[in-house]
Amino acid sequence: MNLEDRCPCQSGDTFGDCCAKFLNAVGTSFPPTAQALMRSRFTAFATGNVDYLLVTWHPAYRPAVLELDPGQQWYRLDILDTCAGGPLDTEGEVSFRAHYRYRNLRESFSETSSFVRTGRQWLYVQALSLA
Ligand SMILES: [Zn+2]
């Protein structure tokens, strides 16, 4: 993915001005909010960045191995709601709907995810609800 392309997280910014700042600078540049982390993780799914998904996953909940199905193409993210998760918070929740294509079918699912902040790093904890 080129830095000039539209960011997969649908922020409206280019990839270079949006999630690439975090995906390409792990440990140096941190998403400031739970929602920004959520967006960057969606972009990691969309670009097949398994390392980023694991490093931003809370160690107590992180899978030992994560394999992404290359046939699953993530193309749209709708943020539905957020609760806390700001720069001064230590916990937050983000509700979203993620859209993907799989074998020419368009599918989507919604989830409310919980996040915690450790130092400057927001981490994905787990899905609180699925629909
Ligand atoms: Zn983005």
TrEMBL record:
Domain of life: Bacteria
Domain YchJ-like middle NTF2-like: 33-127
Gene3D superfamilies linked: 3.10.450.50
Residue stretches spanning the membrane: none
UniProt protein name: YchJ-like middle NTF2-like domain-containing protein
Species of the source: Arthrobacter alpinus
